[in-house]
Every structure is written in C-alpha cells, then in structure tokens.
Amino acid sequence: MTAISFENISKTYKYGFKKITVLAGLTLDVNEGEIFGFLGPNGAGKSTAIKLLLNFIRPNTGRITINGLVAGKDNFQALIGYLPETPCFYENLTGLETLWFAGRASGMDNKSVKQKAVETLKRLDLETAGSMPVKTYSKGMKQRLGLAVALIHDPQIYILDEPMSGLDPMGRRLITDVLFELHEKGKTVFFSSHILSDVEKLCDRIGILHKGNLLFCGKIDDMTKNNMTRDNTISDRGDLEDTFVNLINEHEGVKNV
Question: What is the span of the domain harbouring residue 14?
Fold first, then answer.
C-alpha cells in the first residue's frame, strides 16, 4: 500500500519578472512501512516538497496524498509526526510541558499523554532534562526533543527534515536506533538528509532530487551497482557518496573525475 504519493507536482515562484521552477513534475511513491531517504544537494527542492506534503504551501499542479487522503482537502494531521530541520519551541516551557502540549494538541487525553511523555523523554535520553526549561537545552537536545514531539501521539507516518542535524555521534546513534524501532513496528518514515552514511544504513529505498527533477528512485544497491569509484575504477558496488556525486555531475554535464 502507498503511504505517501506525489503525483506530477510542480511548484514555481515569481521573483519580479522571473519565474523560478522549484519542482518540475515530481512523481514519487513511498510505500507503507518503509524508511525512505529523500536526498539532493542544497537548493534541490527537498524542503519545498516537504512543505507541500504538509500542506504548508500549495502546488501549482498535481496532487499529494497521505494514506489516500488528499493534502489541502482532507484532514490527515493526526496520521503524521513531523520534525522540522530546526525545531522551534516555547522556550520557557520544560521538556515535559512541551510534550504535554504536543500530545494534547494531537488529541491525546491527559492520562495517556502524561505516561507517554515520560516514556518518550526517557527513550530519547532526555529524562533528567524533562523538568528543565527548553531555553537551557543544547542544539542536540532540542533536536531530540523535536523527535519526541513527532513520536508522542504514536502516528503511522513520520516526516523528518534532516533528523540528524546538530547531533553528536551518540545522538545520531540514538536517533538511528529509534528509526529502526519504528521500522520494526511497521511505521513509515520519510526523511531528508545530507549524511549519506546514515542513509545507507537506514533506508529501504531512496529518491534523489536535483533542481526540482527526480533523478533516481529505488534501492541503494540498484543505484550503486557497477558505478565509478574515487580511483576511477568500476566496482561491483561503489559507495553512495561516489554514485550520488557522479549522478549530480552527469545531470549538470560535468565530467566525472
């Protein structure tokens, strides 16, 4: 079953007399229960695609669905957990109060949200910080709290924009373990990242976007098979970074070296 579907999505912006195309007919399906990595260089259109998916902005053409519900028409917010690239909080609230607020806003009752908030803070190694104001949190702690907000109401689909941003190696390992746990529970995870080693470790499939165009969608092994490596030789399986750079260069008309 398809969890997320972009159907011929185009998005343009006007700057004076200029028209800038950010997405050009993006068609992409994310299957239920998979971890899908959404990759691309800076300015590729990934954040725009995520904003469209969340109905923060509207496309010029096309349709987006989440579990068959149409973005901009149907109410699907309860189905998803969202982590923005830079989470923002009410800085004077504690971590526990932040999760209580998020849980109640998602329709949870007081008893459920209280229990789940404590469990979620503990899982993300924020238990001792739960009574501290968010303004005292480090960047990495705020990133983990942002994921806790996405987890609190136990949604079926997770949309995560750069979930590893600002995390030290211990934090990245923690988030990786949480994402594997979600996968084992049959949850769907759609996330963007520039950390290709994490993508290789986590993802069932990936999509690569560049200048609004989808260059590849499929399994990592299918992409890296028989690709040129750094020493300019063919290997049975080049790494994702080499293949990613080669693909972008090819699209730009740049000779790979």
Answer: 2-218
pLDDT in tens, 68-110: 999 988 888 889 999 998 899 999 999 999 999 999 998 899 8
Question: Are residues 188 and 253 both part of a single domain?
Answer: no
Separation of alpha carbons 196 and 239, rounded Å: 9
Query: Coil, helix or strand for 187?
Result: coil
2-15 β-sheet, strand order: 18-31, 2-15, 61-66, 69-70
Residues 153 and 230 in one domain: no
159-194: per-residue pLDDT in tens? 999 999 889 999 999 999 999 999 999 999 999 998
Owner of token pair 């949850």: 187
Count of domains in the chain?
A: 2
Contact yes or no for 123/178 (Cβ under 8 A): yes
Claim to verify: residue 147 and residue 231 sit in the same structural domain:
no
